[in-house]
Design goal:
- The protein is α+β, with helices and mostly antiparallel strands.
- Helix content is 33%, strand content 19%.
- It has 7 helices and 7 strands.
- Strands 3-5-4 form a 3-stranded antiparallel sheet.
- Strand 6 and strand 7 form a beta hairpin.
- The longest helix is centred in the first third of the chain and has 10 residues.
């Protein structure tokens, strides 16, 4: 704990995730990737990450707000399979917090899980139409793009069990 306090006081208001990534930098190789016109620093396991879906002991599809960007909402309004389109749109509600530009979010089930999550812990939208139909929220997690001391970096959230395995286990 003393190490964290000293580190924290030297760097100011640093986020815990960045501090954890700093520690991993001592043990993992830093790579540079090209993404949308930027060169970003990532840890060596970044490109090894793949969602293990139904094999995962947890679910990232529970307990948090899934926003639906305008582009994705337009896709959902034009899903060719009419019964599936109606099912999807039934679970999408207007998000008042999105401001004047509008916005939508997924209305979660009573247990706070995403209604599109099936019994195999796979997204019905993903299963039927692929990753191009996922919202930005679902596409990005567990990735976290940001700037750290003016350097672009992309980290993976340790909230994902598979990321934690990649970060901690060798190889």
């Amino acid at each position: 704990m003393q190490c964290f306090k000293n580190f924290h006081s030297k760097l100011g208001s640093i986020q815990l995730q960045s501090w954890i990534n700093y520690i991993f930098l001592k043990y993992k190789q830093v790579c540079r990737i090209y993404f949308k016109g930027n060169i970003m620093n990532v840890l060596d396991y970044y490109n090894k990450f793949e969602c293990i879906g139904s094999e995962c002991e947890d679910s990232c599809c529970k307990g948090w707000t899934v926003t639906i960007d305008k582009k994705t909402y337009r896709k959902y309004k034009n899903i060719p399979d009419l019964p599936f389109r109606k099912e999807v749109l039934t679970h999408i509600v207007h998000d008042r917090r999105a401001g004047m530009g509008g916005g939508h979010k997924v209305k979660l089930d009573k247990d706070k899980s995403c209604p599109f999550l099936n019994e195999d812990k796979i997204c019905n939208i993903y299963q039927k139409y692929g990753k191009n139909y996922l919202s930005n929220t679902c596409t990005i997690f567990p990735r976290n793009r940001r700037y750290f001391f003016n350097l672009p970096e992309s980290a993976l959230s340790l909230g994902c069990p598979e990321v934690t395995r990649l970060a901690i286990l060798p190889g």
